Backbone:
């Protein structure tokens, strides 16, 4: 089985040592956690895990504290990280994160909601990061080596929604390179694709999409206040939970 363990950094609004105890207890009960470090002074929690980031964040916030994702990867060597927030109009469906684990392995970590229960959807990287006409202007599925018999690089496979219309996933892709897909887009399609018998064009229309933008690696994001809004990261996190 492929090694999906990597490090994730969260800022958590801890007030005292009792908060550290609550976080430690919560993470201890979560299967898939290899190790974790809790730093009260820095309000930082670093987790080594094979779980999607959304599950770890949910566990941290089950303590009653707010947790903000800050970065992912290895703090010794950062080969690249990126994120795409999938939207349709003003509605946000979720996000997909990319972390380059090594030259031939990219960890893809996603959390998507507002889907029809038990339905499957194809997820593709498209050539263009052009949302001027919504998802229709993102071009074709990204495939830098069309003359080979290898898989279509931008075809990330299918996701399945649970009974509440949510899909959480994490896997390793050996074709994606973060530095090649930044500036392109991720599209969530209305149908799934049988990878053995069908083409990516059978996935139907895109129901949500987002541009792939560079994101912070481990220990790279030290901001506590958003320069665009002037709000603290805790205020912004509270707003996203409400809406």
Residues:
């Amino acid at each position: 089985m492929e090694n999906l363990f990597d490090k994730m950094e969260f800022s958590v609004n801890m007030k005292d040592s009792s908060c550290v105890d609550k976080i430690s207890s919560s993470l201890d009960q979560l299967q898939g956690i290899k190790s974790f470090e809790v730093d009260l002074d820095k309000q930082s929690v670093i987790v080594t895990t094979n779980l999607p980031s959304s599950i770890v964040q949910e566990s941290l916030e089950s303590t009653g504290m707010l947790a903000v994702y800050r970065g992912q990867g290895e703090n010794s060597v950062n080969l690249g990280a990126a994120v795409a927030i999938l939207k349709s109009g003003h509605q946000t469906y979720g996000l997909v994160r990319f972390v380059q684990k090594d030259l031939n392995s990219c960890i893809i970590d996603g959390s998507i909601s507002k889907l029809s229960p038990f339905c499957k959807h194809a997820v593709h990287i498209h050539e263009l990061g052009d949302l001027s006409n919504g998802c229709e202007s993102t071009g074709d599925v990204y495939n830098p080596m069309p003359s080979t018999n290898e898989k279509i690089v931008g075809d990330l496979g299918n996701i399945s929604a649970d009974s509440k219309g949510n899909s959480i996933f994490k896997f390793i892709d050996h074709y994606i390179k973060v530095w090649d897909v930044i500036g392109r887009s991720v599209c969530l399609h209305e149908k799934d694709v049988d990878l053995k018998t069908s083409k990516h064009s059978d996935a139907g229309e895109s129901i949500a999409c987002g541009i792939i933008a560079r994101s912070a690696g481990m220990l790279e994001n030290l901001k506590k206040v958003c320069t665009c809004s002037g709000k603290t990261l805790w205020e912004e996190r509270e707003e996203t939970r409400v809406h």
Notes: Residues 225-230 have pLDDT under 50 and may be disordered. Helices lie at 17-28, 53-61, 178-181, 233-242.
